[in-house]
Structures are given as structure tokens and as C-alpha cells.
Amino acid sequence: MFVPLALALLIAAKPPPDARQDLLDAMVDEINRNQAELKLRENRGPYFIGYQLKDYDSREVLARYGAVFQDATTRDRKISVDVRVGDYAFDSSVGDDLDLSFALKGPSYLTKKSAPIEDDPAALRTALWLVTDEKYKAALFNFLKKKGDDVYAVEDPKRPPSFTKEAPEVHLGPRVPFVFTRDRWLTFAREVSARLAREKAFFDSEVRISADKVVRSFVTTEGTRLVTEDTLYGVHLKAYTRADDGQLLENSREFYAPLESQLPTDAAMKKEAEVMVADLLALRVAPTIDPYTGPAILEADAAGVLFHEAVGHRLEGERQDSDAEGKTFRGQVGRQVLPPFITVIDDATATERGGKQLNGHYLFDEEGVRAQKVTLVKAGVLQTYLLSRRPVEGFLKSNGHGRAQGNRKPIARMANLIVESTRRLPAAELKAQLIAEAKRQGKPFGLLIRDITGGNTNTAGFGYQAFKGTPRMVYRVDLKTGAETLVRGVEIVGTPLSSINRILATGQAEGVFNGFCGAESGMVPVSTVAPAVLLQELELQRAQEGKDRPPLIPSPVSLTK
């Protein structure tokens, strides 16, 4: 009788309590209380409140010159509160992160947007209560001021609503293990940083390993109840040198994965570090070239940066209505904006591409909207924009791209930008077309750009609509022999519509570029998937060279074996 009784007790046993549910319940209790009671005299109370709690658990190991400089563990919880007065059609929201109330008479004390790292529901509710009170007063001020401004403004019949209506989501995600094999990473960081420091030509270098886990709890007065857990691991290698003419040069490698076990092996990363070293040493002695305008091939990583900067940012929804923006693609839906063989998708639901993990994946965006796959440009024709819960004329629903870092205000951002093409050529044929195009234009050579360290773009209406990229490995292609010669000293510049509409063809293979993107709502993880592209014309200007003298004597580490 003992065994059956024990089994019965096991079957009847309740699952262990989930502290995440307790905190979520506390957030729901506090949001309901504020929705029911929060009101200033005869004025309106909030029609919408949203609470978000982010629990950060982070590890970081950083080594330089063969020694550990940082071995850190941090824990932090941040809260964000969205309080709106009015209704979906017209509410208190403003177009920037600062409340209009601070332009006049604002509060003398700003509440801290942090939460207890202990699972204390009462303390969490108190932190939310204080921030909610502050946000409500600011929202009421903004609402009344906007109503007053409407007295003088001409009515715009095309003005979109202030906030989209979305179906509530309920999701209690599984727990995600957070493994950080500290001894492995300490050993790896020491060994690889020592290897980099032994290069006499390098004056500085570092190896950094990061691991981050975020547990996110999100509730709204609309009924959304979410708990999600995400982890992201990164290994970052970087080295610096100077050419004989003083130009500062750097090279780096970055590896990302959602799980530690999905990172490349230590041996594979060390092998890639050797490639990084060889490339940087070659770059150091490479000749400089003069500014250039002519045909060029951007290999996959470089092409991804081009589309991210020249196209992706300009399709973010908030940029279509802001008076401060250049509105490159405003009013272009249904029109040809890219070559007809190009399709651009942003798929936040994708976790990998060709076996490589994608940084930009998530289940729900920062506004509680489920992640979606969105076709932005189909066969060259603009279909839609990246959309948050701030509507754009003609688009009154979010497509799950409201994103932000920490507790900043979300706006529409890229996630996994994927470029597809129906005009794909083998690498050899793409290079042959580069040579043919350079001859046709009477150019002395063509250019091949293997990668770009990063880029930036200006989308504002008060400046030139332009983007800039910093190419790292640039090769001059001989028109007779096809030989490739590494060169340096230039950076890519251009205007977006002109550059992307000069794509003649693309390569067969596609590459995945993982990283982080910074914009108004902070740094968010993103990926770009793209094939190599052959551009009819690309402009390169002289890069800032720098004339600093390198260290006068060798480093101590470089003198050791």
C-alpha cells in the first residue's frame, strides 16, 4: 500500500510557487487600483495604463594583455509606466521622450524608475504607485495643452489616432536557464587577449564576454498579461593599430547566440581571431586610395549595413509623420522604391537563418504586441512601414515593432531585416560584371568591399538625407587580371534613394550580420540578412586619417614569449 500512496501524493502535489506570477499579480492589482481611483478633481482619469518590469541579470568578463580587467555580476530591475489621458483617437502622448510639462512648471522631484531586486510585491507596488502618480500629472498637463493648441491649429482630416487598439495578449513563458561557465571564459579571455597583446604592431586590444538575461513582466489596463525570458551571449574581440601615416585602424570579431552552448567553440573563435590579426596587419601596410565614385561590390555583411542604414531606418513608422524628419518614403506606398528584383522583409519571429542565430528575435514587442513577419517592400514596391502602437496615416494597427532599451519610450524599430533577390549571380559572375561595368564607365578599377565596421544615417528634415558607412576591408580590383589589392583610407557616403536604386545584381550566397542598433529609443539587438550587391555607383570620400604618433617603445607584453 505504501507505493501507491506515495504515487498518489506525488500526483496530487501542487507545482512549486512561481514568484513571477506573484509579481505579475501585484502589478495587476496596482494597475487596477490606479485605473479605478486615479483622478484629479473634475479632470479625466487615465484611459490606458501600462506597467513593465524588467529584471536584468548580467555577467561580464573583460581581459587585456593576458590579464582579467573585469569580472562582474550585476543585478538590476527597472520599471516603466505609460499613462495616457484622453482616448485612442486623441490622447496625451507627445512625440518625444520628455513630457511637455517640464517645459513650464514641472515637478521638483523625479521619481526613480527602479524596482526592488527582492520579490517583494508590496515594495514593487509602491514603486509603481509613485511613478504612476508622476506620469498621470504629466499626461493630464500634456492632454490639456494639446487641447488648447487645437484651438489655433487648422483641423487635419488625415491626422491619425494617437494610439492603436490592439487585442490583449496573455502569456506566461517558460523559464530559460542562465548558464555562464565562468572558468571557461576567464581562461579564454586571458589566452586570446595575451595573443593579441603579443603583436608588436597593436598598441591596444581587448576580449570581452557578456551574458545577459532579461525577465520581463508586462501588464496593461486592456488586459495584457505577459512574462517572457530572454538570454543573449556575446564574445567580442578587438584590436587597434596605426599605419605609418598615423591613421587609426581597428579590427574586430563578434559572436552572438541566445544560449551559451550555441556560441562557436573556443577553437573556432581563436581561429577567427587569427584571421582578424592577419587582416589588421595587412591593413596597416595597405596603400591609401583617393576618393572614388564608380561601381562596387558590397559583400553580404557590408550590403546588410547599407540596407539597414539607407532603407530600414527610413521605413520606421514614427519617421513618416514627424515634422523633424525628412520622410523619405512618406506617401510612397504602392510605388516602386527599389529595383524590381528586391524584396525587403522584417521578421521578428525568425530565430535563425541558414543555421545562424538571429539577434532580433522576440515574442512580443515593448508595447505587448505579438511579433510579426512584415513584408516592407515586395518586388521593389513599398507595401507598409515598421509600426508601433503610434499610428501612421493609412496604418492604424501595430505590426509588433515597438522596441526600446531598458525603460525608454518605444518607437518602431527594425528587428531581423531580410533582403531577398530574384537576380542572383555566382560570385565569379558578379565580379565579372563589376569589371565590365567599370570598363564601360571608363574607371581605372572597380572596388570590392568585404565588410563595414558600422554605419550611421541622418533622417532629419533639417539636414541632408544621407548615410555613411566605414568600410574596413576594401579591395581595388584590377580590370585586366581581376587581382584584388587591399587599400584603406576611405568611407562610404551617399543619399539613400540614389544608392539603393543603382543595384545591378546580387550574389547567390547571403550573410547574416548580428549586432545592436542605436536610435531614439536606445540600443536594441538586430540582425540583417542580405546577399552581396553590385552597385552601379558608390561614392567613397577620404576618411579622417589621424596623425597621432604610436607608442614610442614596445609594450612589455609584446616582449615576452
Short synopsis of the structure:
This protein is an alpha+beta fold and 561 residues long. The protein contains eight helices and 22 strands.
The helix-strand sequence is HHEEHEHEEEHEHEEEEEEEEEHEEEEHEE
Low-confidence stretches: 5-10, 96-104, 458-465
Estimate the global geometry from the Cα principal axes.
globular
Can you give the mean pLDDT?
89
| First-last Cα distance | 72 Å
> Percent of residues in helical segments?
10-25%
Question: Please, how many helices?
Answer: 8
Decide which structural class fits the backbone. alpha+beta
State the assembly state of the protein chains: single chain
Tell me the radius of gyration: 27 Å
Describe what you observe in this structure.
It is a single chain. The chain has 561 residues and is α+β, with helices and mostly antiparallel strands. It has helices at residues 2-12, 19-37, 121-152, 182-197, 266-285, 300-312, 427-440, 496-500, and strands at residues 46-64, 67-85, 170-172, 202-220, 225-242, 248-257, 292-298, 342-347, 352-353, 356-357, 373-378, 381-382, 402-403, 411-412, 416-421, 424-425, 445-458, 466-478, 484-487, 490-494, 503-519, 522-542. 23% of the residues lie in helices and 35% in strands. Helix 2 packs across helix 3. The chain is globular, with a radius of gyration of 27 Å.
List strands and helices in order, with pairings.
Blueprint: H1 2-12, H2 19-37, E1 46-64, E2 67-85, H3 121-152, E3 170-172, H4 182-197, E4 202-220, E5 225-242, E6 248-257, H5 266-285, E7 292-298, H6 300-312, E8 342-347, E9 352-353, E10 356-357, E11 373-378, E12 381-382, E13 402-403, E14 411-412, E15 416-421, E16 424-425, H7 427-440, E17 445-458, E18 466-478, E19 484-487, E20 490-494, H8 496-500, E21 503-519, E22 522-542
Parallel strand pairs: 3-5, 7-17, 15-22, 16-21
Antiparallel strand pairs: 1-2, 1-4, 4-5, 5-6, 7-22, 8-11, 8-15, 9-10, 11-12, 13-14, 17-18, 18-19, 18-20, 20-22, 21-22
Helix pairs in contact: 2-3
